[in-house]
What we know:
The complex is a heterotrimer of chains A (190), B (306) and C (455). Chain A has 190 residues and is α+β, with helices and mostly antiparallel strands. Chain A has helices at 9-33, 157-183, and strands at residues 39-44, 48-50, 54-63, 73-82, 85-95, 101-107, 112-120, 129-138. Chain A is rod-shaped, with a radius of gyration of 41 Å. With 306 residues, chain B is an alpha+beta fold. In chain B, a hairpin with a 4-residue loop joins strand 9 and strand 10 (242-244). The longest helix of chain B is centred in the N-terminal third of the chain and has 13 residues, at 22-34. The N and C termini of chain B lie far apart (40 Å). Chains in contact: A-B, A-C, B-C. The interface between A and B is large, with 29 and 43 residues.
Amino acid sequence: MNTEKGPKWITVGPVLLLALAMSMLSAGPALAQENRAPTVLTVAAADEFDLGQSGLIIATLTDKTGKPIAGARVTYVTPAEFAGAVAEVDLGESETDENGQARLVYQFRTEGRIQIVARYFGNERYQPVQSSVAVTVGGTAQLYQPKAGLQIPVFGSWTLAAILLGVWSVYFVSLAVVWGIARRPAGGEV
Amino acid sequence: MPSDPQIAPDRQDNLRKWDVSRRRLLQMMGAAAVATAAGATLTRFVKAGSNADAATVPKRLRRWTMVIDLRKCDGCVGLGKPPQCTVACIQQRMVPEPMQWMEVFQYELPGNGSQFVPAPCMQCTNAPCVNVCPVGATFATPEGVVLIDQQRCIGCRLCMAACPYQRRFFNWADPVLPQQALFAEYNVESQIPARRGTVMKCDFCAERPRNGTLPYCILGCPRKALYYGDQEEDLATNGRDVVKLSKFLADNKAYRLKEELGTEPNVYYVPGHGEDAGRSAFDERHAKPMTWPWGKEAVDDDNGAG
Amino acid sequence: MTTALAERHERLDQAVLAPLRRTTWRFYVWTAFLLAVVGWGLYAYSVQLRGGLAVTAMRDKISWGIYISSFVFFIGISHAGTLISAILRVAHAPWRMPITRMAEFITVVALMVGALMPLIDLGRPDRLANMFIFGRWQSPLLWDIFSISTYLGGSMLYLYFPLIPDFALARDRLGPDASPLRRWTYTTLAVGWRGALTQRRRLALAMGMMMVIIIPVAVSVHTVVSWVFAMTLRPGWNSTVYGAYFVAGAIFSGIAMLLIVMAVLRKIYHLEEFITVKHFRYLGYLMGAFTVIMVYFVLSEYVTIGYKLPEGEDRLLAELFTGRYALLTWGYLFGGLLVPALIVFLPWTRRIGLIVLAAVLVAVFMWIERFLIVVPSLQVPQMPYEPASYFPSWVEWSILAGSFGLFALIITLFSRFFPVVSAWEVKEQDELELAPAHAAAAHGTPVSAPSPAGD
């Protein structure tokens, strides 16, 4: 700094103090971030599921000491690929109970290695955190059952066939009766 | 076209086998209704086709579904273009003029507003058209797609009278088609080439999701309002987002058209009037008229109504 | 048998055989005219084959038109035969005798012409065989095929059996007036009928069996025709009474057509002695009774709909009664139901000429009523479309004219080669009526049986 032409300390000082105060104030919230408690999220589920089976996914949210965080909203997604589009599928959300556990019941409808990602987006006290669990879904099942029509017993195509057969039989019998006229010569009264 | 391991080269024969086993399907559906829902596993429908590459046989039957998010559909009025889903379908499927297999209607809303409603074939589970066809030219595949065999249809039009959604169209004269249609190999799933005297309609482009891509209308929608899904895997996508189908339907109060008729359509609608695309319900603009890119003067569709 | 009766029967034989003996120039002119009409219809059909169904006025919105409504009309007329021959036979109504033959003619011809109409309406008539190779029994059109073919088979038998004694009459009495081929035909078809008692018994048995079976078959025919419409969800068609409504309408239009054919043939072949004003009156009463039944069905259909006005049906009723079809609807109600009923029920108008006029009104307005069944229900939009319109093109009118021409042509040819009155049944009936008179004369009590020669 050029002391001959530059500002005197008496003028620079307050400016520097002001700048420092302002930066501290603006850094406040940023610094305060680091005051938020780190959190730990673990997601647990069984290793393997059958296709179509419903599984319980438990996400446990604690702070780093292991104390459970209650009333926190946990969001679940699963990465999926369908008809060429790859994206995260929103599965829903649930809140942690007093043990810090949030539950999701999910029916596994896609085969293979499935990843369930749980996310907590944080609040003013706690940091956001995400965690995931991978499960294997195997087996085969047809889960969609088309809604059945009405199956009434007894009646079927055979009823129609029987009716037609009956009617045409009457025709042929009467025709046979008439052709018998030709066979019997005219004896007897007119 | 990528070779499809699930359809034999002679698609016709395989799909005819579906036709023969339709009665069996009906009987099985009846039995399934009686059986308890939990734990009932349906016998596999294994297509007995021969394959050059002997690829995997499908283990699960899909049930293709569409969900149309009317919050996002503004009839492409905001873009100043005719509805792009219809344009894409006409272009790619070589739909003869003046058919619109995917057609965008404008319904009145309570309060004198209006909404745009794109309507493909509803692919009804209890399809009136399938029920009345005298020759079985209209039939439902095990995946729930209702197809029309262009080589079997006799043109009696009983199906057109039966369809309560008016989604079937007839070739009253020789259809005007682009030149490449002449060389298209007949395929019951794509109805190309169109011919005189038969009925045609939206066929849900079912071979495209099987091959890992999406129908043309879904891809063509600039608002990403159309979702294509599978009720078996419970997923749906509009090409960008993937959603859990059942959750999407429940959360957004989805409904179907003419539910009271009992046709059990497989096309769902999320109520809206294009608000996500910035359209007010009272916007008075109508959809732009449709054009067929190769058309010359074709048969007037309106019975002279204009 | 009295001389008067014997002479009457001789006149009957002569009258019945006269058309088989010789034809006048009028016959040839009439046949040539009908052939021209049919030819014009064939030409129109060729235009349709070349240009596709686009030459009609049908389009995607209104996809059925007068081909299908005429199909319903013709199949409807075919119920004339069943009513007269079978129902009246079962009811032991004696006055039916002279007209049973004509009624049975009309049935067979109407069925044949009617069955053509849906074929003309097909987009791919070259694939007609698919109906038989791939036919689905779940489809109403297949029910039509089963039902109409069964009815046609039954009607042909039912026409043939009572013809046997008349073939015998022709075989015996025509002599040199008929070519050897015709004589051979009559002889073969008469299957050796000599009028013996065993033969009469056999014929009575055969006719009895057919008479009983043909009534439910006929009822089934127009019921399944109605179900082509009632198995869909269109406004107006989605009705549970359609079966009964159509059967009633069929019998109604059949009676009207029978009256018209009766009047024409009676005039041309000089059958005034045998087909009298009594026959016209009785058939007229039946027709009048059916106007009441039709009014009942009109009320059943439209009052139940009109009270509730569900979606779609409100537009249908508006178009039918106050909209573009109002003239036709009210015309049908007044001209097709009220006026004919008045004519046949009021004593001052019960003359042959007016009764035939009533029949013509009924026939014309029943064709219009079939049109009002088919087209307005298709015209009501099921989605937000602008309502379409339909007026048949010249091709459709020409084919319609050709179908009526074919109907008349076949009846004309029929009357040339086969006796139009069932002579033997008339004779039988005469003797039955006279028997009490004989008995009464023998005991000296007054006779109350009606004179067989009519009023």
